[in-house]
Design brief:
Elements lengths: L3 H24 L5 E3 L4 E3 L1 H22 L11
Helix pairs in contact: 1-2
């Protein structure tokens, strides 16, 4: 059986990393881009959106995991 404590610790570490990346992108200190054949295109807004989505997913997992309830798949 997987250790829920390890999962929660990993999730919180991942959350911290994503928050740092988000801060750098939103402050303009870091930008992202992609070569689409005709040159580099700024993809910073898409990166910010992806990070925000991932943070929301992690928050949902942490909230569910931290609720103190456990259930087997299919139970609720």
């Amino acid at each position: 059986m997987p250790d829920p404590g390890r999962f929660i610790a990993w999730s919180k570490q991942e959350q911290g990393t994503l928050l740092q990346q988000l801060e750098l992108l939103e402050s303009g200190k870091v930008r992202t881009g992609e070569d689409q054949g005709d040159g580099w295109v700024d993809t910073t807004d898409q990166s910010i959106s992806r990070i925000k989505k991932r943070l929301a997913e992690l928050e949902e997992l942490l909230t569910e995991a931290g609720s103190g309830t456990a259930s087997k798949p299919g139970e609720r």
